[in-house]
Amino acid sequence: MKNIVFAVSLALVMGSYAYAKDEAPAPKKEATPQQQKMQGCNHDARSKGLKGEERKQFMKECLGHKPAAAKSEKRTAQQQKMKACNKEAGEKQLKGPDRRKFMSECLKASPQP
């Protein structure tokens, strides 16, 4: 009886091994933009021979870097107006109700860039 149980168990194990061996590997998924960025930063850090804190700082800067052109292109006209009015209010050092009044007038009056 033990021999039969052993033989059946052995056959099942060998059969599952053969099945797993014949299975095709899963196709690789394409890397996401963030993964591509990470790979690029890793490659750059490796090629520069960075280690420890230097590598950590480099990776932080590299992964956090966003092209300046992309930021400004994404701003809407309203956001650009708001930024310009905010800058002007800061230069005039306006606070509280005066700032709110100035911002309201500025946003209504200023032409879209």
What fraction of the residues are assigned to beta strands by DSSP? Answer: under 5%
Summarize the helix and strand pattern as letters. Answer: HHHHHH
- Class from helix and strand fractions: mainly alpha
Helix content: over 70%
**Tell me, what's the shape?**
elongated
What are its keywords?
113 residues; mainly alpha; single chain
What does this entry look like structurally?
This protein is mainly α. The chain has helices spanning 2-22, 33-48, 52-64, 68-74, 77-91, 96-109. The termini are far apart. It has six helices and no strands.
What's the SSE blueprint?
Elements (H helix, E strand, L loop, with lengths): L1 H21 L10 H16 L3 H13 L3 H7 L2 H15 L4 H14 L4
Summarize this entry quickly.
The protein is an all-alpha fold. It has six helices and no strands.
